[in-house]
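User: Hello, beginner here. Can you help me understand these amino acid letters and fold codes? It all follows right here:
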Amino acid sequence: MLKKCSACGEVVRRRDCHKNRYGEYICRQCQAKGIRFTPWRVFLHNGKKWLISFLLLLVATAIVILLFWWGGQLFPVTVLFDAANKSV
């Protein structure tokens, strides 16, 4: 089975390359030079984590806004102020 090295682009046999944590195949020659990964795949890998965190923050913010809106519908500000003024 042949694989393409993510660092140099050379086609090598599967046993002559290593699959890193980012899913890239790095040939033995590039590993000997000290190349362990390519910056683009690290960016994509970390970008997924940031995207998930951003989406969770967005959903949490939407839930809080909806709760405040729903609370405003149940307890309008004018009713609360009118009740406070009548008790005085």
The chain has a mean pLDDT of 84.
